[in-house]
Structures are given as structure tokens and as C-alpha cells.
Amino acid sequence: MYRAASGKTKTKVIFLLLKPNKPPRRSDIMSPPPHLQWLTISFALILFLSSSSVLSHSSDRVTSLPGQPQVGFQQYSGYVTVDDKKQRALFYYFAEAETDPTSKPLVLWLNGGPGCSSLGVGAFSENGPFRPKGPILVKNYHSWNQEANMLYLETPVGVGFSYSTQSSSYEGVNDKITARDNLVFLQRWFLKFPHYLNRSLFITGESYAGHYVPQLAQLMIQYNKKHHLFNLRGIAIGNPVLEFATDFNSRAEYFWSHGLISDSTYKMFTSYCNYSRYVSEYYRGSMSSICSKVMSQVSTETSRFVDKYDVTLDVCIPSVLSQSKVVSPNQVGESVDVCVEDETVNYLNRRDVQEALHARLIGVREWTVCSNVLDYQLLDVEKPTINIVGSLVRAGVPVLVYSGDQDSVIPLTGSRTLVSRLAKQLGLRTSVPYRVWFAGQQVGGWTQVYGNVLSFATVRGASHEVPFSQPERSLVLFKAFLNGHPLPEEF
User: What is the overall mean pLDDT for the chain?
Assistant: First the structure.
């Protein structure tokens, strides 16, 4: 899922905008790719195959990205084929830890959408080592690769630089296919990087990655029952979609409590047509007149000049509105560029950048933040994943759910409700009572921990993409999560 800061419509990001442009195509669900050989692969075979020079990661090494500052860590990017027959390949970008990478854990980051890029959003807008600024890259001083080796994956096929030689591969893609492809990606990625096989592995992401991350973790646990390969040590998901109705319908109260809608519209939004009903009707092609009326009023009052991903953040005014004058991008502090999406699109569409990344455009003319070719089964959003999160907790996998508290798309109230309900269902007692935590001598947010395995945290002043808007606080949160420590009680 991605914040449309520039005002450009993201038609594939179904529940982010109040009025999507068009319903998805009705396509037959694509048969999953053959995975038998990879679901039965052994640890010994991986070590054997990794000795092949064909599987060496050296050809994926990025010597330097155009305009980047000098750094001391290694970077890699390239492709991992997840389906040999249809030539379906996923693109990755890997930034090793800034210091002592051999002792740091491996962290996989996934953005959501479904259909938005972990390279352009996660790596270049949120928690990666660099951010584009005009023709150059500037260092992100709160990059997560200070604490871990960061692996960013553009998934599913059809997103960003990931591709298939057959356009039919982009039709009928769903959560099940995506999870299996992500599993195969990791298996084959370890063939290139066998020295990371025994490393502590964490899976992180945000938004629709509330589907991607738990489903991938579940497959990894199932796989490990026969062939121990993944040293999974925890998952962390930010502003995640975990349960359709609870997450979506919490936005009505959020809009109202932040003054974005009137009392009368709030009543309509909660009594006559809530947001989950609207989405269900829209994508089934059966929009009722009452839902159309309610959502039109909500859209009018909230205004397209308010960023729904951060109701306090200024928007990047599209150039079309300025006509003959140049509008300088609004800045919030030193680290938040509300026009970073435009900067990223321009940077990743440069030929020299693509060559440096070993990337290529197959079947599309340009790299986009969110895919224009992917036909995702969008109604998968209605399938809850909070129950999968529960199974992970029962298996002893630590889970952190965190929320930027300025996000109206997937508000903190829904996430907090779901985590609290899950803890009660699992019989987990509160080990850390609800309290503030600190970062940089300021309140970083609030947190509560259940049974030392399930945690909830808010990040104060943060948007839907927490590391984008609160980089320092997100790094404190990330470090505590990796180390299994409580968030700081004092500064």
C-alpha cells in the first residue's frame, strides 16, 4: 500500500482511496507454479548447489548507484526466477548492514498495495540507506541497515522490475500465489547467498503486507517441519490489514475524531454504509445508491488536499495546479520530503540507474510505484490474516504490530483492537502494561506487550509509512524488536 502524496491515483491500491477508478478484471485464477522440487529440497542440496559459480551472488553486486554518497557496505540487486517454465522472476535489492554484517540478522521487507514496490517505497522512501533528491541520492541517517542486512523484494510478479515473459502471469494473482512465490524466492535467494542460511531471519512490512508477511511466515513454518531451512525469529507489520471489517471501519471514527468529517456524515458513515460494505459492493460491481451517496459526502468533506495516509502532513501539489509557476515542495523537518514519490519515479526510470541495479523493463515502458499490469484478486482483502498471526504466536514466533498514529487508512484503533482480542483468545497475560516509550528525548509512542511474544506499539506523529515520516522513532522501534527488548521507558 502506498501513500499517493503527489495526488496521482493508484487504481490498484483498492482501499486507500475513497473512490477507486474502476473494478478489477474478472480473470481465471492462475494455476500456481510448480513448487514440488523446492518444497522437497534439502539443506544439503542447497549447500551443494551453492558451490556452483552460476549461483554466485557476485554478478548481482552493485558497485555504485548513480549519484550515491560513498558508503562502506555492500549492495546487491538482481533477479531470482520463481518459475522456470514461464520465466517469472522477482527483483530484489539487498543492502548489507553498515557495520559488522556477519553478526547482524537478515530482514526481508515487503510493501503492500497489493501491487506496490518494496524497492521504490521501502528502500528509497522509507528505511533504505538512500533517498533520491533530484539527480543524486542522499544518505538516510536512520536507515534500518544500521541494525540489519536489509532485503527488499518487489512482489508479486508484475510489480516494479519483477516480470514474466507471459502476460497471463499477471492475471488472477492472489495471496496464495504470492506467498508461494515469496517462499520460492527465499529458497533460491539462499542459493546465491548461502552464508546467510543460518542467520536470524525476520520478516517485516506494512499495509497489505499484513497479508503477505503472515502467510509467508506460515509457509516457512510448515516447510521447516520436514526441512529446517528458515531461522525465523519474528515478524513486524506496520499499519497492517489483518481483518477487513475491523481495520476498514475504524476509519469512520478516525475521520470524525480528527475533524475531517461532520457529525451528520459520521452518523451516515456508521449507520447506513460503512467502509467495508462500500469496498465489498464496489468490487462486486453492485454499488448501492446509499453507499454511493455516503462515500461521495465523505470524499467531499475529507478533501483531496488532505493526505489520508497522514492527516497532518502537507501534500505534494501536482504541477498541473501550479500552471505557470513553480511550487516548491513542502518540507516537514529535514527528513520528510512529501514529493519523494516523484523523485523516486524519476530516479528509477533513468537508464544508468537501471543498468547499475541490473534491472530491466519487460513488457512495460516504465517503472511505476504501483503496478499498472498486475490484476490482483482484490477480494482476498476480505480474508482475515489475524488468525494466521495467532498461529505464529502459538508456534513461538514473536509478533510486533505497530501503527503510525496519523494514518486514517488503517487506523491504530483497529489494529489495537485486533491485537488485544487476539491476546485474550490466546490466553496471553499483559507483560508490559500500556505505557509511553521514548526516542530522542521525546515520547515516541505507546506500547503494550502480551506474554513476551505479542506486542503492539504506536509511533507518535507517524504516517501510514512509519519510517518515511518518523525515521528516528522507527529505527528505535526496529532495534528493540530485533533484540527482543522492551521499548525504552525513559530517554
Answer: 86
